[in-house]
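=== RUN LOG ===
request id: a7f3
mode: sequence -> structure
chains: 1
length: 91
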Amino acid sequence: MTNQDVPQTADMLTTAQAKQFLNVNRHTFEKHVRPNVPRIVLGRKHFYTRVDLENWLGKIKQQTKGRDFPSVGGGVPKAKSKLGSWFPYKD
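=== RESULT ===
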């Protein structure tokens, strides 16, 4: 799906269109967007309004004070394994 597939005048976007509108992958959408943006459920379909998505983006921008690369999830995750961490940070 490309940005051209997202209707410019649509008030309600499907989940796929909302992900494309925000330019995020499924994992990012499920972790950060879905819990924080109201959705409309009609049967098995989930819809998001463009206004709600834009409002959520505005809140993220305010929280990050307009930095170019906001870290919505709170930073770089630490890798953990039985062999120890390959990441240079300690728990």
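=== NOTES ===
The chain has three helices and three strands.
The chain has a mean pLDDT of 77.
=== END ===
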